[in-house]
Design goal:
Distance between the termini of chain A: 19 Å
Largest interface: A-B, 60 and 60 residues
Oligomer: homodimer
Radius of gyration of chain A: 23 Å
Structural class of chain A: alpha/beta
Order of helices and strands of chain A: HEHHEHEHEEHEHEHEEHHHEEHEEH
């Protein structure tokens, strides 16, 4: 296929007529498909059903330290759960605290605490004239939502194939003490699927911000969420590298089992330096007497250890891999060579990122919606929902069945074609 | 027995010698007993073990609205859990949101939100020169801990047998716009066990504070925690009364199943007016995608409905009642008529409140500790841990076995006697 931009007006019109016919035929089916959110499918959830059998009325519900998990106590999390999540996070057990059911909640609470109480004794952010965060784009809409909610000004930083543009990050944080944080999804990033290079992680570990209370919000949401057994991204562990650099207080690390077991009913954790954990504990002491230890115990009994989690994630991958491939193959087959879009082929995570021609993303999402396919709202991958180029679209292939996904991808590529053709036809 | 204050020095010395001998004999046993926290006992926890069988790998884990509880979603809580907790809270289902595992956490988050974001559009408390809270005393140490953590100034208000001194409450809130809240445990109060009178609830419902963002933090922790079948406290439902008074925004109501099923692994809820729920949802939307719906489902399947909860609470009462009676009978038998202390005989809740002679509470707690009995720290029932009279001691009879409780009560009453004797002997 030759690129649209090289086609004559007649060729474009013929392409449009063919696309329109196929689009209308699919639209007439009245489908209702959803590629909008990174939700596990039913088949993936079924993989964890055995966890519901791990505790029953006859179970010993005592944890390793001898505490009855049915009662109050153990603010830090039960030892065996700390060890399991520490292994998952590649940090020592002493560097991690187990929280409630979701890492999003931990991130929200962490920003909330910084706003009202400050970070490690520094002025509460809420008392400063302004607070700013760096936001690698495209990124995760719920990260941006938290900082927007608290009135924090967000500054876009391009996300390159190696991670955030570190020249820009270093320059910005070195000169502006009001920049207090950066949102990062270092592995199988949401939505592009890229993983940070060693150089990027090392530059983060050595970062010297003007603000002493600057923190890297390192959301390791997809750390073990590989699609392939034999081709996996490996990234350096940031807390370890920051310690080596004598800079360990700069890291807030978040992790959860949301996309390992049951989203919303998993366990979440926070890993950080001794000083940061002490700071977190000062609030935790008043916030809770202890998180859900029975759910912690349930997770540990189900997985036993990190090998158990790895085996489980292979089963998850076996379900997700064909879905990712169905989408990327559909994109390649229908859009390859047309030069009206580019997309990522992630080796893990939950998303494929699609870049349309400038000014086309909103129209493509609307067009797909018209034929029954819900995509993440165009712009959602940028702070304030504003994609300056109106180009990026996040594709979430996990939830639909493979058959639904094939139909959804077809509608999506046709929407891309028709909106792009419209753009070229207005100028030719 | 005649009152100590009427005894001669010789009589007091004889009483001291007898008490000292008994105390030393008990101390020599090297006991390790704990009456410090309101923790359910193992036998109470066992009552809820069946909940662990309610969901297993073959269960249908879909809630009434058709959503798979294993996946993301339903920020407000599943309908059947909202209905159950609404019944427990005596409010309509639409007035309640289900949160995570603990109401303490919800209260902390609610104050945190007010600090950083304000209440219903008003200035964030964190930006005000000062924020004050009214604290009925004696009261719950963890309430006072939250307001202390956020630097909120706490003002003591006497807790009378009918509830907080409402003349004082009305006068204070009407004249000081910096007073933003009051901590209340309206039923089987912690620690005195009293329940608010109808007049008190009605005066709260009609309260007219100077601050438009003043809220009553109504912690209904013991709403269904009766000790007796035939002699139960009933209080007016505040949100209903506040609605009648056109004053519904003044109420924040908190409830949880912590002392119904498993503390820390229960479900918590927040009930309030439409405007207050909208305010809470604005933050919730960014804080979470949904709380633990599987745990909500587990609770609903275990109890089925409010009748199920009531039957369950009768079993709890059967375990708790003899413990409360063992303590109050021990106090009556050993201290009756001596006029060196007074105590409450609650009909529900988790605590007995003991008032010693002024200046004796700390010494009594230390004396009991020396013989192996841990009590809640003297002063803990007051803001900043400062009981101005050093008189109040909270007794928590739930956790020890009945045998342990008899021994612990004996050590406690001997500690009261010896410390009181010391006080009288220094002046005689």
């Amino acid at each position: 296929m030759k690129p649209y931009k090289e086609m004559t007006r007649e060729e474009l019109l013929a392409e449009k007529a063919a696309g329109e016919a196929r689009y209308q035929a699919l639209k007439a089916k009245g489908l209702k498909l959803d590629m909008s959110r990174g939700k596990p499918s039913k088949a993936q959830l079924d993989l964890s059903n055995g966890m519901m059998d791990c505790l029953n009325s006859d179970s010993d519900m005592t944890c390793e330290s001898g505490v009855d998990c049915r009662n109050y106590g153990i603010m830090d999390g039960i030892p065996e759960a700390r060890r399991l999540l520490a292994d998952m996070s590649e940090v020592p057990e002493k560097d991690i605290l187990i929280y409630g059911n979701s890492s999003l909640n931990v991130m929200f609470d962490t920003v909330a605490r910084a706003m009202s109480m400050g970070v490690c004794g520094h002025t509460p952010w809420g008392l400063l004239e302004k607070v700013k965060f760096l936001c690698p784009v495209p990124g995760y809409d719920r990260h941006f939502g938290i900082t927007e909610f608290f009135g924090i000004e967000m500054i876009n930083v391009p996300l390159l194939p190696t991670g955030p543009d570190m020249d820009m990050v270093e320059q910005l944080v070195a000169n502006d003490p009001l920049i207090k944080g950066i949102w990062c999804v270092p592995k199988y990033s949401n939505p592009t699927g890229i993983s940070y290079s060693d150089e990027t992680v090392l530059r983060f570990a050595h970062l010297k911000p003007a603000a002493p209370d600057f923190r890297i919000f390192w959301d390791n949401a997809y750390s073990i969420h590989h699609l392939y057994d034999d081709d996996q991204d490996v990234i350096l562990e940031l807390l370890t590298e920051a310690k080596k650099a004598g800079n360990e207080d700069i890291v807030y690390k978040f992790i959860s089992t949301s996309k390992v077991t049951f989203p919303g009913s998993g366990i979440a954790a926070f890993a950080a330096s001794e000083a940061n954990l002490a700071d977190a504990r000062r609030a935790l002491f008043y916030q809770t007497i202890g998180h859900d230890k029975l759910n912690q115990l349930r997770h540990v009994r189900f997985f036993k250890d990190m090998d158990g989690i790895r085996e489980h994630m292979k089963k998850q991958a076996a379900i997700l891999r064909p879905k990712f491939e169905a989408v990327t193959e559909g994109l390649e087959r229908e859009l390859g060579g047309l030069e009206i879009g580019s997309w990522t082929k992630p080796k893990g995570g939950y998303f494929i990122s699609f870049d349309a021609l400038d000014g086309c993303a909103k129209k493509i999402v609307a067009k797909a919606k018209e034929a029954g396919v819900t995509m993440t709202g165009a712009g959602a991958t940028y702070p304030y929902g504003k994609d300056p180029k109106d180009s990026n679209i996040r594709i979430a292939p996990s939830f639909p069945t493979p058959e639904e996904l094939t139909a959804a991808t077809e509608i999506f590529v046709l929407s891309v074609k028709l909106v792009s053709l419209e753009k070229y036809l207005t100028v030719k």
